[in-house]
Amino acid sequence: MSSPWPAEQLPDCTHKTVVVTGANSGLGFEATKAFAANGATVIMACRSTDRGARAATEIRESVASPESKLDVRSCDLASLRSVESVASEVAEDYPSIDVLCNNAGVMAIPRQETEDGFEKQLGVNHLGHFALTGHLLDRLRRSDGESRVVTHSSGAHTAGELDFDDLHRTRSYGKWEAYGQSKLANLLFAYELQRRLDAAGVTNTISVACHPGYAATNLQYRGPKESGSAVRLTLMKIANTVVGQPAEDGALPLLYAATAPNVGGGEYYGPGGLLNMRGAPEKQTSSDASYDKATATRLWERSEDLTGVRYEL
């Protein structure tokens, strides 16, 4: 049974401008649908504008309120050029942003590289969002109320380990090890961003992290499809059916972190049910490694060097 939280408690978003990466499918689509149903202007940052446009049409025809607006923009997180371009366009068209949902991601795919030569899971899941957040930080700080950066991690972060000598896994690549590294990087980034906001005396912007538990989406299918494994694809479909919760429920922690009034900077939210895999959102604690300040500082500095993006704080 779906949790009643979003339908009954998602605040009115009529005057909110929200950016969602990966808004055309899965958790991003469900979050966009919920924001739109509550009147938000949602900038749908999608790798494929065609798929984004189809998703926007579906949302408009189903749940969008008259006050909502869906704005599809091209954003390929595997390209720093694309990230900078969409950020520049959004900054030109919108004087302020209230919520940035760093949602899009890839999971357990065969080793590939981004346009800039980064290992793709780290490049898309962390570095692309690091750059996008840095480019949009000025617009977030111009929000009339409290703005939020919400970064989607995963329970898989607990198995992650940052190898600073081989961040891009050129010497040894394991698809799940690389995924865990990228999800740990998401949390290190989210917490370090909050520390830096605090140190700069910024009080109207906070950084929050979340994870969806086990949500049945197409994300699980990409790795098996790209590796050509029919067996893995079949197993993933069975797991999604038997274990996974609906995508609309998997989006709840993201929606909660983005809108709930009692959310604080540097916090982490996920499903509170069975093994933290399903259920209504609650505040949780991530792994000890995710709170390591020295590692977070080192990752931040390396991320600045790799992306060329410096945060104006």
Task: Characterise the protein shown here.
By secondary structure, the protein is an alpha/beta fold. The chain has a single domain (13-304), classed as Rossmann fold (3-Layer(aba) Sandwich), CATH 3.40.50.720. The protein contains eleven helices and eight strands. It has an eight-stranded mixed beta sheet with strand order 3-2-1-4-5-6-7-8, sandwiched between helices. α5 (120-141) crosses α11 and α7 runs antiparallel to α8. It starts with a helix and ends in a 6-residue tail after the last helix. The model is unreliable at 220-225 and 233-242 (pLDDT under 50).
Global structural class: alpha/beta
- Overall morphology: globular
- Quaternary structure annotation: single chain
Instruction: Indicate the radius of gyration in whole angstroms.
Output: 18 Å
Side by side, the strands of the main sheet go 3-2-1-4-5-6-7-8
Give the strand tally. Answer: 8
Amino- and carboxy-terminal Cα gap? 44 Å
Largest sheet: 8 strands, mixed
- Average per-residue pLDDT, rounded, comes to 91
Stretches with pLDDT under 50, minimum 5 residues: 220-225, 233-242
Helix content: 40-55%
Domain tally: 1
The CATH topology assignment is: Rossmann fold
- Please work out how many helical segments DSSP would assign: 11
CATH architecture assignment name: 3-Layer(aba) Sandwich
Portion in strands: 5-15%
CATH superfamily: NAD(P)-binding Rossmann-like Domain
Please trace the helix and strand order, writing H or E for each element.
Answer: HEHEHEHEHEHEHHHHEEH
CATH class: Alpha Beta
